[in-house]
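Re-running tRNA wybutosine-synthesizing protein 4 to confirm reproducibility after the cluster update. Everything else is unchanged from the original entry.
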Amino acid sequence: VQGTGGSSAVSKCSAAARGYVQDRFLRLLVGRQRRRAPLVHRGYYIRARAVDHCAQDFLLKTQSHPRTQILSLGAGFDSLYFRLKDMGLLHHAVVYEVDFPNVACQKAALIKRTKELSALAGDTGGEELGVIAFSGEDYKLLGMDLSELSELERALEGAGLDNEIPTLFIAEVVLTYMEYSRSDALIQWAADHFSQACFVLYEQMHPQDPFGRVMQQHFSQLNSALRSLAQYPDCEAQQRRFFEKGWTECSVMDMNEFFTHCTPQDEQQRVQALEPFDEYEEWHLKCSHYFVLTASKGMEPSWTPLLSNMAVPHHDGPVRTAGSIAAAVCAMPSETSGLRRYGHHSVLIEPNMILTTGGFGEEDGQHCRVRNFHVLIKHAGHWKAVCVKKQNSGKRWDGRLYHTVSRLSNSLALVIGGRTSPSSAGLGMLWLKFPETCNVSDPDDFTVELVSLQPASEPAALRWRHSATEVIFKGEKYLFLYGGRSALEPVLGDWYFLHAKELSYTVIPVEGPVPESRHSHSACSWNGGVLVAGGLGAAEQPLGSVLFLRALEHGFQWQTVETHPPLIPRYSHTAHVHDGKLLLVGGVWFHSSSVPGITVIDLMTGLCLDYTINVEHLEWPLMLHNHSSVFLPEEKELLLIGGGGNCFSFGTHLNPEPVLLSLSNILVSH
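Result of re-run:
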């Protein structure tokens, strides 16, 4: 548990060094410095912002009181005291910090030998007594085990804590490491013993969904299990907990809500522009698995609780579902580790043959951008995966992610865009040539030839997370290239028509209101036009629109498909059209109470039904974002390939095997 404190201090320090937070004291308190990934920077930024926001709010709203105090539980090497003191916010407040004795002693020694810190803390110079590791004018550091309540109470009283003045308790990822009966007792003690109090709690939730299972496993492997999650798995349970333990006001929100509604727009944009970033799914999943809660009692109404003055549209309960679909592992006799990947693309090149390319995943026993191609072939009722031979691959493939592959004939597919790293320019176009006929029973001689296209630098192709969809105009086939992002533009809203045979861009008139820019949306061919659903918009907010680019005699027209109930905004899903119905598969949304399953939209009536995916027969968490899916119309089955991602600092999760979903029950024609 102490190790988690040290590693989070290093992460906060790295975020400060990159300009996410203003904190010049962290580097003085954290010995070792390591550069963390942009995703980790964002995660620690939102954590620091939430706690700082609450602490400063408390101090500002209690400034008319002659004396106030802050008690930080399990403070570790946090720099909160030094920042508040430096900002001149502690004129009449004392900060108490409690942590394990050896942590408190280490921190006290650091403060004493660091001029800048000891000057701020006003080191009184005397030898510290008993549990008090450091005692300054307005700063007391105590070495104590938080679970020993009666000793804690005695020590705090001895250090000068006053239970009659306004008190802010801060517990930032601390209580969850204690047995829940002990953390409950601590929450109750704070309410019972202090006449005017506020409590700020920041920690994890939603242990049972796929991301939550990866998160729990990570903490268990560190030997620091999250102990209150089973008892208090979500915001509602935490809120009930505080009411039951004697707090009179309590509000709580997850970190997606906090970032969207409690962080000013210009600050959101500043943070989004600090580093090249392309891990939106994991950022939003991390934020839906952490919450900030504020509770209070005995406070003047003008400042309770800290978050209630912000207009947060609250969730209208859980997502209503029309039923569930069972997931089954698609057993394959051959080696499928090459299919453990995300950000790849799968395309049906013949009725029982799927080509999967690109992405990030497992290759030769390590995690990297996948260079091998794989073909999945169904023969005699069974699927098998084969690694494909590539000709002329060289530099041309570059191990790309988030590209598109469009099959244009029996032996040709066109690859458009994709990226290597998010800071490098997108990649251009490539032909993939493969044999017109393949011996399904012996696919090992299947070869794909890569042919570069000149000029590869066409701006249209230098993008990723876009869509490329076949449309028909005046009897000719075109690819409609839409949206995505590039190294320069975090989101694109433009489109191009690419003549399928000549590969020339053609100007075709498009009427109707221009849709808002998006990437990570889905796009399907339908009735000569394109159905676009969801996506991530300009402010990194999921979109809930369904659009139809309808074919007219002289061009196309954008139309909105009205759905009821309205489609829950999402992105990073896949989509298929079958028999007048649009199927949306997986993705990421902000409803943290559940994960997206399959949504079926009836294109004639607009009726929108959500189905959950029943994963009881899978032995591992099924992460349905950055996956690929292929619809098999004969069997009315969906084959899900790959998916997953880099789960914050909890490790990379890749779905280990392809999964089959039978949709025959939900696709019955009415």
